[in-house]
């Protein structure tokens, strides 16, 4: 198998209607290799990927998840052992609802790498959370023309990163950023990682604190000038319920609830730039669909989602779920600190929330206390990162 210049690694389940747009876009911007691990597909995504692989457009591997294991971490473990996948100059692990949006030059990967400082070995690209555009109904139509509004750059809850990087010895794959295997037993391995030249989405060098274990930007390290990851985490309200029906890659029960939707359904800023690719994407997809087998599988996948959505619409509670999402969609950023959202908290934080609830403290009061404590921690991280960047000469 030929050495690749730029490779995408992804994990998928039931992504058939969106698959071709996602694949076409990333091939158009310059990724010459795409590896996808799938598990428990109901809609034929796995069969579509097998056909695409036979056409030379991607590589597909099954992810047989053992009982009790989480699909995403298990797939990453399999990928770490895949020498052909790692035989690449650059690697980007991303999900099927994420698009690398290059905001410099002609929008290609070549333009992004050219805009980064000489010697760059990794780019930690911040999320840009994309909203529902207030669309209610599910549609199999492409994502990019439908959802063209998102969060402002100062939306701190959306500063998670995905990392485009050059593989290195003792690599441990992660969905947000890679680390090193055996760092506790072999400190020199971590030192090697700390010495690597990673930059943020504006091309600015990242500090040691981030290099060691960071997966989110701070006020000192986030940047959007050159690139961002457009994260279509919610899409339409019906699409969101379909997503919850599919489950999630880390087996988090009830992850895709109305609170998650309220936090990440951000529509404050018009962000139409990615939709400018839609014509070229459509032409390339239509060319692929001249393959009659792929077209049949694609149509079957879309039909499966229509049928499954009809089944969900007929279930008790569907109307109430849609009403909850309608209320969630009206939540402004300024009100999020009054919304209890324990999902991203560490285990001790979740335990604290449980104790406060058991003591009868209202959710809004708990949310305010948690938000105040998180703000303190984030301010401390901002200060640490700024101090490190000053010591490196990146900030004056």
Task: Compose a concise summary of this entry.
The protein has 396 residues and is of the alpha/beta class.
What do you see in this structure?
By secondary structure, the chain is an alpha/beta fold. It contains 15 helices and 13 strands. 42% of the residues lie in helices and 15% in strands. The strands form four sheets. Strands 5, 6, 8, 11 and 12 form a five-stranded mixed beta sheet that branches. It has a four-stranded parallel beta sheet with strand order 3-2-1-4, with helices on both faces. It is globular, with a radius of gyration of 21 Å. The N and C termini lie far apart (47 Å). The model has no long low-confidence stretch (mean pLDDT 95).
Q: Report helical residue fraction.
A: 40-55%
How would you sum up the global shape? globular
If helices are DSSP runs of H or I spanning 4 or more residues, what is the number of helices? 15
| Class derived from helix and strand content | alpha/beta
């Amino acid at each position: 198998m030929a050495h690749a210049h730029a490779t995408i690694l992804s994990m998928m389940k039931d992504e058939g209607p969106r698959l071709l747009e996602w694949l076409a876009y990333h091939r158009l911007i310059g990724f010459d290799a795409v590896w996808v691990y799938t598990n428990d597909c109901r809609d034929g995504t796995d069969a579509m990927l097998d056909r695409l692989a036979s056409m030379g457009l991607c590589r597909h591997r099954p992810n047989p998840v053992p009982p009790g294991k989480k699909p995403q971490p298990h797939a990453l473990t399999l990928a770490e052992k895949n020498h052909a996948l790692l035989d690449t100059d650059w690697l980007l692990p991303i999900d099927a609802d994420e698009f690398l949006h290059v905001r410099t030059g002609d929008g290609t990967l070549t333009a992004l790498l050219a805009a980064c400082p000489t010697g760059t070995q990794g780019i930690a690209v911040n999320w840009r959370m994309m909203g529902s555009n207030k669309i209610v109904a599910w549609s199999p139509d492409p994502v990019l023309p439908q959802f063209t509004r998102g969060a402002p750059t100062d939306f701190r809850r959306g500063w998670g990163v995905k990392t485009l990087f050059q593989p290195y010895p003792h690599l441990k794959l992660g969905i947000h950023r890679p680390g090193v295997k055996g760092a506790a037993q072999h400190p020199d391995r971590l030192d090697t990682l700390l010495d690597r030249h990673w930059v943020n989405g504006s091309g600015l060098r990242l500090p040691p604190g981030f290099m060691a274990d960071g997966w989110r930007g701070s006020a000192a390290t986030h940047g959007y000038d050159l690139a961002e990851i457009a994260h279509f985490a919610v899409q339409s309200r019906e699409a969101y319920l379909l997503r919850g029906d599919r489950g999630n890659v880390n087996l988090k029960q009830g992850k895709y609830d109305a609170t998650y939707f309220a936090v990440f359904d951000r529509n404050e800023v018009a962000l139409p730039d990615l939709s400018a690719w839609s014509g070229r994407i459509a032409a390339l997809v239509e060319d692929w669909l001249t393959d009659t087998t792929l077209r049949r599988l694609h149509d079957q996948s879309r039909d499966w989602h229509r049928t499954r959505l009809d089944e969900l619409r007929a279930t008790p509670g569907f109307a109430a779920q849609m009403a909850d999402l309608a209320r969630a969609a009206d939540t402004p950023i300024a009100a999020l600190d009054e919304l209890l959202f324990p999902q991203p908290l560490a285990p001790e934080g979740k335990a604290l929330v449980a104790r406060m609830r058991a003591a009868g403290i209202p959710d809004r009061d708990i949310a305010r206390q948690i938000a105040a404590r998180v703000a303190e921690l984030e301010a401390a991280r901002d200060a640490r990162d700024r101090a490190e960047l000053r010591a490196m000469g990146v900030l004056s």
